Amino acid sequence: MRVGIIDAGGANIGSVRYALERLGVEAMVSADPNVLLACERLILPGVGAAGIAMERLRQAQLIDFICGSRQPLLGICLGMQLLFEHSEEGDVACLGLVTGRVTRMPASAEIRIPHMGWNQLHLRRPSLLLNGLSEGDHAYFVHSFAAPVTADCIASSVHGAEFAAIVQRGRVAGAQFHPERSSSTGAKVLENFLKYDPPKILQAENP
């Protein structure tokens, strides 16, 4: 299987690539739409700021490609946030593939931001991406901004307030946590993304 990792400058590109290698998949990293077009799956990793990442995608002429592509797409961490319509981080318009706005997580004396560490997943509705996962499984998070829990949210988590941990809308999916650092839970999400053919991934889990 040809898997393309979209190079938006994220510091987690290498670890995502190694996680795929552990699953027997050798992925190519590229910011060239022509190279990525030949891939059967696309992954958009990201660590950093939304504005900088969107500008990198714009300079590489990747925004129209990503939005117009028909390949299954998985956004990871910041890459998931870029799937939404807007991010409060830098007040920037994002890809608009998933409805909603990404906002800063609320802090308090008891709740430290950024949210860093292991946290539980709460499964909200069935999805092929969740096969093999159980309610309360743990995943590893590092983030200060979060996406809302909407109809596209298939798993959530709580840190002060509830937020989207995994989203899916048609061919487009995202994980706020780092699958490449989330042990068997993360490996299962990646495996599920790679395992199913596009017609099954595109089945009507969302209207």
What's the arrangement of secondary structure elements?
Elements: E1 3-6, H1 13-22, E2 28-30, H2 33-37, E3 41-44, H3 50-59, H4 63-68, E4 73-76, H5 78-81, E5 84-87, E6 92-93, E7 98-104, E8 115-120, E9 122-123, E10 138-143, E11 145-146, E12 153-159, E13 161-169, E14 172-175, H6 183-195, H7 198-201
Annotation keywords:
about 210 residues; alpha/beta; Rossmann fold; eight-stranded mixed sheet; four-stranded mixed sheet; 7 helices; about 25% helix; about 30% strand
Describe the protein.
The chain is α/β, with parallel strands linked by helices. Helix content is 25%, strand content 31%. The protein has 7 helices and 14 strands. The strands form 3 sheets. It has an 8-stranded mixed β-sheet. Strand 5 (84-87) and strand 6 form a beta hairpin. The two termini are 28 Å apart.
Kindly report the average pLDDT value: 92
- Helical stretch tally: 7
Could you please say which CATH topology applies here?
Answer: Rossmann fold
Basic shape? globular
Encode the helix/strand succession as letters: EHEHEHHEHEEEEEEEEEEHH
Give the strand order of the largest sheet, numbering strands 1, 2, ... along the chain. Answer: 2-1-3-4-14-13-12-9
* Share of helical residues: 25-40%
Secondary structure class reads alpha/beta
Strand tally, please?
A: 14
| Strand content bin | 25-35%
CATH class: Alpha Beta
* CATH architecture tag: 3-Layer(aba) Sandwich
Radius of gyration: 15 Å
